[in-house]
Write a structure and sequence with these properties.
about 375 residues; 3 domains; 14 helices; about 20% strand; binds S-adenosylmethionine
Length: about 375
């Protein structure tokens, strides 16, 4: 990729082009950046390159002549790339545009300064205007560096073999998941366990969930265009429901656990509460594929769990418990929360959520609200 930058201040770009990944790419010839000083093409005897704006107004405007002549002298007729003016009026740069630019063999970038550039220069030598964001810089040089940097890292060989541009923010249509490196425990802040567990499928699932959750939280509009699988859409539905639930339970201290933990929870609960001799039959009757809906209360109502308390007596029991850590599980939504004290999660506070269960941390006591007037609730102790 050959990039020609037309600027009044080439020295602003030079240091950035000699450092780090960009510097290595330039040194290796993977990108060739030529800095063209517009002033050298000024026909003015004082080498002026700007003048007062016609019609009045603050500041100076870059004149057309040096720019048009600089382009003519440096872009041969065979130039086939795009000629871009960095400008706050342009299309806002994004990863899609960067990917398109990276397909070009050559680029010409014009950096404005002062109040901008005589429109006739733009009409003569520019194909399109690109902005690097909705704010105004003093000049286009930083914008040109942003374009060069973003484009360069998509050129094969610029990133090392172990650095990939493929699963980063925007490349997947989503924001990137959080990254961690050593140490696994930094001053008491631990890396999420799944990342050190070595199970690649679990790691992928965790990363996808975090990507979707971050995108939903910070840039929900990206989800409209992102390529999503059915599993992604299901996960998003759970994440949206989690927001509703958390808004309702605002003020109750809870920590939402990952969706994988939520998926594993019903099995742990089932094994803790359904006596071994009933499990086979209970699984046949109560489970339906990976859907957990109904497991909990069906296990009670179909008699697979002996000695439970039902109705108002069941509702009373969580209130009599000693404070301690526990779980809130919403089976219809597959959401699992850890509570520092499960006794603050009263049936009254939770009943708008419909079908839910509470359990103490040791899974020795559980309360199940079925969300159905004619069934339950149930309380059970093992
Ligand atoms: C002070 S600005 C001129 C702004 C111009 N008067 C306007 O309001 O659109 C000077 C130069 O900085 C560059 N520039 C400023 N903001 C930019 C942005 N957000 N993206 C790209 N280039 C920018 C452009 O090359 C521009 O010609």
């Amino acid at each position: 990729m050959r990039i020609k930058v037309f600027t009044l201040f080439p020295e602003m770009l030079r240091p950035a082009l000699s450092q780090s990944i960009l510097g290595r790419a330039v040194a290796a010839g993977l990108i060739e950046v030529q800095l063209i000083d517009i002033r050298e093409y000024s026909a003015d005897k004082h080498r002026n390159t700007d003048d007062y704006p016609f019609g009045g107004g603050a500041g100076m405007v870059m004149t057309a002549q040096p720019i048009v002549d600089a382009f003519a002298a440096n872009l041969p007729p065979s130039f086939s790339g795009r000629r871009v003016y960095l400008s706050p009026r342009g299309r806002t740069l994004n990863q899609r545009i960067v990917e398109d630019l990276a397909k070009e063999k050559e680029l010409a970038l014009l950096c404005g300064h002062y109040e901008g550039v005589d429109q006739r220069a733009l009409d003569s030598v520019i194909d399109e205007e690109l902005s690097i964001g909705d704010y105004v810089l003093t000049g286009g040089e930083l914008g040109a560096l942003v374009v060069i940097d973003a484009v360069a890292r998509l050129i094969p060989g610029v990133l090392g073999s172990d650095e990939s541009p493929e699963d980063e923010s925007f490349s997947t249509g989503l924001l990137e998941y959080p990254q961690y490196t050593r140490p696994a425990d930094f001053r008491g802040q631990k890396v999420p366990e799944v990342l050190t567990g070595g199970n690649h499928a679990d790691i992928e699932a965790w990363r996808r969930e975090r990507s979707l959750a971050l995108t939903l939280e910070r840039r929900p509009e990206l989800l409209d265009a992102a390529p999503l699988t059915d599993a992604d859409r299901a996960m998003l539905a759970r994440l949206r429901r989690a927001r509703e639930v958390e808004a309702r339970l605002d003020g109750i201290p809870l920590k939402r656990l990952g969706l994988q933990d939520a998926d594993r929870f019903p099995k742990a609960w089932f094994n803790a509460f359904v006596p071994a001799e009933n499990r086979k039959a209970a699984k046949r009757q109560c489970f339906s594929g990976r859907r957990h809906v109904g497991w909990l209360w069906q296990a009670f109502s179909m008699g697979f769990i002996p000695d439970f308390v039902e109705g108002e007596a069941a509702r009373q029991r969580p209130r009599e418990e000693q404070p301690g850590a526990g779980w809130l599980y919403l089976p219809d939504d597959g959401l699992l929360y850890e509570a520092g004290d499960w006794t603050v999660l009263t049936p009254e506070a939770l009943s708008p959520l419909g079908h839910f269960m509470l359990a103490d941390a040791a899974l020795t006591r559980t309360y199940v609200e079925t969300g159905r007037a004619e069934k339950g609730p149930y309380f059970h102790e093992v």
